[in-house]
Design goal:
mainly alpha; 3-stranded mixed β-sheet
Length: about 170
C-alpha cells in the first residue's frame, strides 16, 4: 500500500466534506454565538476548522515543528463566512501541493510543538499529520455540525446523506 497516496486521497475527501460544513454556516449567522460558555464561538470554531485543514497542514508538512508563544498568540477571528471560506480554499490548495510533493522519507521525521519549556507534541510527521490535521479536523468539524444543528441550519452529509438530505 502506498501510504502517501492514501493520505492524499483521504485529505482530499475530508477537504470536500469540510468545505460543505463550512458552507452550511448561514450567511447571516452570529459568529459570536456560543453553544455554551465552555465552547468556542461559532466564528472561532469555524476558523479553527479552516486552520486545521490549512495552516496546520502546511506547518506539519513543511516545518519540523512549531514554537507556540502563548503571550503573543491572537486567535484568528473572522468577520464573515466568506472570509472563512476564502482562507480555507487558499490554504488547502497549498496543503495539497506540499502533500503531493513531500518526499516519502520525511514521514518518519520528528515534528515537535513546544510552548515555552513545555512540549505539547513530539511525534513523527506522519502521526502529527494523521492525528493533528486529519483526526483533529474531523473532531472539530463534528462540533461545528452540532452547533449548526442547534442553530437550526441544515447539515450536509459527510459520509452519506444527513437527516436533512434524506
Amino acid at each position: 500500500m502506498d501510504i502517501q497516496k492514501e493520505l492524499i486521497a483521504e485529505y482530499d475527501r475530508e477537504v470536500v466534506s469540510t468545505r460543505k460544513m463550512l458552507d452550511a454556516i448561514p450567511a447571516d449567522a452570529d459568529l459570536n454565538w456560543k453553544a455554551s460558555p465552555k465552547c468556542m464561538t461559532l466564528g472561532r470554531l469555524a476558523a479553527h476548522v479552516a486552520e486545521t485543514a490549512g495552516a496546520w497542514g502546511i506547518s506539519t508538512l513543511s516545518k519540523n515543528g512549531l514554537e507556540f508563544d502563548m503571550s503573543t498568540y491572537k486567535p484568528w477571528a473572522p468577520s464573515s463566512k466568506a472570509e472563512i471560506l476564502e482562507k480555507f480554499e487558499q490554504d488547502t490548495v497549498k496543503v495539497k501541493q506540499v502533500l503531493g510533493g513531500l518526499d516519502p522519507a520525511k514521514w518518519d521525521d520528528k515534528w515537535k510543538m513546544t510552548a515555552g519549556d513545555q512540549t505539547w507534541i513530539d511525534d513523527s510527521r506522519y502521526r502529527v499529520f494523521r492525528n493533528w490535521v486529519l483526526d483533529h479536523l474531523i473532531h472539530h468539524r463534528a462540533q461545528l455540525g452540532r452547533d449548526l444543528r442547534t442553530l437550526g441550519a441544515p447539515i450536509p452529509g459527510m459520509y452519506g446523506p444527513s437527516a436533512d438530505e434524506s
